[in-house]
Please model this.
Amino acid sequence: MVIRFYNTYTKKKELFKPINKNEVTLYTCGPTVYKPIHLGNARTFLIEDLLRRHLEFSGFKVKQVMNITDVGHLTRDDIEAGEDKIQAEARRKKVTPKQIAEVNEKDFYAQMKQLNVLKAYKYPRATDHIKEMQDWIKKLLKNKLAYEVNGSVYFDISRFKNYGKLSGNTIANLKAGKSGRNLRSEDKKHFYDFALWVNDSEHLMNWKSPWCAKGYPGWHLECTVMATKYLGKQFDIHMGGEDNIFPHHEAEIAQAEGVTGKRWVNYWIHPRHLMVDKKKMSKRDGNFYTPEDIYSRGFTPRQLRFFLISTHYRTKLNFTFEALEASNKSLQKLITFIDDLQNASGRSAKDRKNLDIDGALSALRVKFIVSMNGDLNISGALGALFTFVTRINKHMRSGYISPADAKKILIQLKKFDKVLGVLFWKGTDKLSLEIKQLIKQREDARKKDDWATSDKIRDELRGMGIELQDVGAKTKVVVKFNV
Ligand code: AMP
Ligand code: ZN
Model:
C-alpha cells in the first residue's frame, strides 16, 4: 500500500512510512478553550479525523493525542504579545479561568461527538503538566538553548541551527522582516526569542518555579512536552491548522530537538484555513460561526461534517451558506442512494447487459483508495463515488438492482464510511428549533384530527428537506436536506 502525504517540513509529497509498522503516532494541536470552537477549528479537527480514519481503514492502529490549551496562549500569539486568552475571557465574564476552560472543554467534546469525530487516545491539559514543562525548561537551560532574565525563561533561537526549517522563517528572514515579538522584548537577547516561562505575579493562573514565585508556561512548550510524554521522543505525524506553522510548530521543534538531539516528527501536515469573505475565520476577528450557529439555522451536524471534509485539505475553503446548501444536495444524493438500496427490489443485475456489479465495485474501490492514498484526495474519492451512484441509479430506475446486488454495494459503502463517517449516520441529525416547533404543531393538529393543517405543515417541512413518515400514532422524522 502506497500512502503519500504532503510534508510541510520537506515541502514534498512523501511516501508514508510509520516508525512502527502497525501503529501510527499522531499528535494534533487541540483547542484553546476560551470560547466554543468555530467552523474553522472544526474544519481542522475534521480533516485530522479524516486522515486518522483513512489510516485505520488502511490497516494501521492510530494512537492520537490532542492537547487542551488552558493556559499560556496569548491574544497575539503571532508576535508573542497581549494577554492570555483564557484569562482575558475570565476577566470579561467575571468568572475564574478554570470555569472558562471547563465549560469550553466540555463543549468541545460534545461538538466533536456530534460531528462524529473519533475520540483521541488522550486529551491532556496544559495545566496538568506544569511540572513536566518546568523539567523540560531545566534541560533546555542545561543545554544552553535557553536563558533566564528577571524570573522569565526564553528560548535562544540563535542557538538552534534548524530554526526556520519548517516555516521558512529563518533568523535571517526574521531580522530582515523585523516583525518584532513584543512580550518582554526588553528582556530578550533577540526580539525573535520566545518565552518558555513567564514571570507574572498578576497572572490569574500562576505556579511557583525555580525562576520566579509566580509564573506561567509558554504556549509552545505544552505541545512539545505532552506530545513527547504520550507519543515518545520521535513520532510519526503532527498536525494543526496552517496558522500553527509559525511560530507555534517551529518553536515546538526547536524545544523538542533542542533536548533530544533527534528529528522529532517525521510528517508535518497542515490543513489550510476556512475563510469568510477572503479572511481567515477567527475568534479574534469575530468573523466566525460556531457549529451551534449553523444548527440553529436548520442544518445538521452530518451536513456540516460533509461540507467541511469534502474539499481537499490543502485548499482554502470559503464558508458561505450557498456553498453549504450545495454540499447538502450532494450529500442528499448519497443518502437517497443508500435509502433506495436498502429498499431495492429489482431483478438481478446479472440479467442486465453492460452491468457488472462486481466489476463496477472493484473499479470504485481502486479509485477511492488510490485517491485517498494520494495525499487524502477527497475530491477524487468522492468523484468516483458519485460517478458510481449515477450509474447504479440508472439501472435501479430500470428495475435491475436486486436485494442481493444492493447488499453487496451497501457492504462496500459501509467500508468507505469508516473513512468518511457520514454515510451511515448514528449521531443525532439535530433539528433546528423552527423545525421542531413545526413538527410539534403538526402533531397537535393530528391529535385534533385537523388533517388540512397537518398536511400543510408536512408539505412545508418537505420543502425544508424534512420528510415525516407516520407509523401508527408515531411520526418518524427523516432529514433529507435543508434548503
Ligand atoms: P485554537 O483554538 O486557536 O488553538 O485552534 C485550534 C485549531 O484550529 C488549530 O489547529 C488551529 O490551527 C485551527 N484553526 C484556527 N482557525 C482556523 C481556521 N479559520 N481554519 C482552519 N483551522 C483553523
Ligand atoms: Zn500545539
Remarks:
- The mean pLDDT is 92.
- The chain has 15 helices and 17 strands.
- The two ends are 41 Å apart (CA to CA).
- The first strand starts at residue 4 and ends at 7.
